[in-house]
Amino acid sequence: MSDPRPFAERKADVLARLAAPVADCWVATAGGDEPYLVPLTLAWVEERIILATDRRSPTARNIAASGRARVGLGPTRDVVLIEAVLDETIPVTESGAVGETYAKRNDWDPRTAGDSYVFLALKPVKIQAWREVNELPGRLLMRDGAWVTR
């Protein structure tokens, strides 16, 4: 087991993962008592997580109803866990720079998927990151939408 990363390195690693091309993630939502988990690809645009999905999907419906989602990136020994709130829902037909940026960073363009697709712009409110048990004590990087300062 390697030494725990310093806070600045851990934050830089999280930002690099979010900004990476074709950043795959798991998105957890709930509709009533029904949890729902789906793999999606994100784009990090203006400090928001941008997801693309059909507006009729359980993910879009659950986020619209609750205003919340949990996003996970990475394998079990290099976890980034993000709690986020819905900032806005953007129809792909009206997405402008958000749609352009998403398409440039990913391997598909949701704007070609039909007008039932939307971009869900999520604002992170809590971010945690850790690799091994020795990084658990310093895993909190963002609280209440603001980066923790160390």
UniProtKB/TrEMBL annotation:
The organism's place on the tree of life at top rank: Bacteria
Protein name per Swiss-Prot or TrEMBL: Pyridoxamine 5'-phosphate oxidase family protein
SUPFAM superfamilies in the record: FMN-binding split barrel
